[in-house]
Design goal:
single chain; 211 residues; mainly alpha; Four Helix Bundle (Hemerythrin (Met), subunit A); two-stranded parallel sheet; 60% helix
Amino acid sequence: MPRQAAVATTGKGPSQRARKAIVLVAIALAGASLFVVTSSWPDGGLVHETIEWAGMVLIGLCVAGRTWCSLYIGGRKNFELIQDGPYSLVRNPLYLFSVIGAAGAGAQMGSIGTTLVYGIVTWAIFFWMATVEEAAMQKNFGADYDNYAAKVPRLWPRFSGYHSRRSLEVYPRKVIVTFLDASLFWVAVPMTEAFGYLHAAGFLPTLLRLP
């Protein structure tokens, strides 16, 4: 059976701790923005509510997408190279779905501006992380990874290349953990509602309004 290909860190590049630290800093900055930023669209209005609901769709897509990825890579991350399922669309689908989730979290403020800022900043962080990690992947898997990278984009999906195996060996615990981790994006819904109330009631200052 030919060796499969997967994008995963295998000991080089930024450490797991460093990656988590970067992500946590980004989350902290996003949380801090809730104290001073609001939407210029009236809360309860059509545009504001439409943006929020669109964001919920994005968060749902993030949770489903990351769970889908775990079906293929869960339990195989550090020793197999996988190139089917979501990994046939894009080399870093877990990162891509996290970007979608971050944009959805930003949309819970009812602002297109925060949607774009959250999404773009998250994309920039993961693009850098993926670039560094891929150097390790190339070193570990050589020509196999070079061939894979030549066919599949890093963070922008190419749907025409999709293919999947007929059956999967699934690690349920990995899938559940990934699902629960991704579900944390839903925390943005009650948090932004609470902060929106505090701004509307005058308990928090509004230093910036974004459309």
